[in-house]
Amino acid sequence: MRSRPSIVLLGSTGSVGQSTLDVLACHGSHRVFALTANRNVSLMLEQCEQWRPTCAVMVDEEAARQLREAMPSVSPETRVLSGAAALVEVVTEAAVDTVLAAIVGAAGLPSALAAAKSGKKLLLANKEALIMAGPLFMAAVRDHGAVLLPIDSEHNAVFQCLPESNRLPGRMAASTDVRRIILTASGGPFLDRPAEMLGEVTAAEACRHPNWSMGQKISVDSATMMNKGLELIEACYLFGLPPEQVDVLIHPQSIVHSLVEYCDGSMLAQLGSPDMRVPIAHALAWPERRPSGADFLDLVSSADLQFRHPDTEQFPCLRLGREAVRAGPVSVIRLNAANEVAVAAFLGGAIGFMDIPVIIARTLEAAENGSADPVEGLDDVLSIDRRARELANELLIGIVRS
Ligand code: NAD
Ligand code: MG
Description:
single chain, seven-stranded parallel beta sheet, globular, binds nicotinamide-adenine-dinucleotide, binds magnesium ion
């Protein structure tokens, strides 16, 4: 009898990481090889006590020291590793079959790419990793026979609506009779708030999403709608479609997670409760189906389902995302880098909410000249990312609140 597959959870202490452990507890299907986090020692200890992984990684050295001290009394068989290189080390282990990539931001790129290059089954939540390295990432998946399953709820929905025969990475939609993909967006907490009232909103308000419970960075991205800008780019890379074939509609109820429109006029949609355990359970069990623990939808008592076009005047980040993917991979890397810098500054109280798109647009303008830079490997990606962060940080100085 084949033993249970082994999984590594990159970002196990985060929102997606915790939801994944919930689903794993419900399935009993996998053995946990490694859990990884940045610096949340107490939650990592709890998780290790329950899951007894072979390895636990803390990227932060001081956090790793504390974890090493406490681990023997909690899970003596667990080896504690530290530093970013350990993330790559655990995902490339031969004993590992499946990797959940749920680190937030650019920090998750090297480990997610390493999982693709090792031909693993890769459950991808970290959209920043994919969009930074788009073409490289998809080539790595193809060349090394990895199985890439999107966890982002919209992309997971599209994946479920595509025909079985067209699920090859990067060519998932292009070779079918798909007319377009429609990504749905809740519109976030400020959907009906006029643009002139957004200047003074606080980080706490921006993080209070009406339908989803998520980490801080993606919550702010949802409030600016940069999340949908990033997801548009994610969809182009994942499904091999040009941006003209990817539309966005506001759907405040977050029940229809996305749609695929075919050339004969048929539209297929995936519906479900707004609960990340649904796409996570789908990807973990794929190609089979297993329960997720999420509530079942009651269509009769669900609110009316509404759809409308997004207002890119109110939410310029969505327009910036579309322009960046049209301009090419270098602009996409810069967009993502400037967004990470601006969101961190907003969360730290240094800039206002409406300064976020300003920083991103100015970074893209200031950096324009190098848009033909080659993006041939991870080093190129990281150097374009680094330079854009420097630029964004310089621009921040002119804006920072006194
Ligand atoms: P989160 O902030 O709740 O968790 C982030 C995780 O990454 C934590 O475990 C943290 O320890 C780890 N981490 C942070 N910085 C790190 C670093 N420098 N090095 C290594 N590990 C680090 O984030 P989240 O909401 O779970 O989102 C994770 C990813 O999934 C993001 O890319 C997000 O866009 C994507 N995503 C999240 C949701 C959601 O519902 N939360 C939905 C779709 C996609
Ligand atoms: Mg999403």
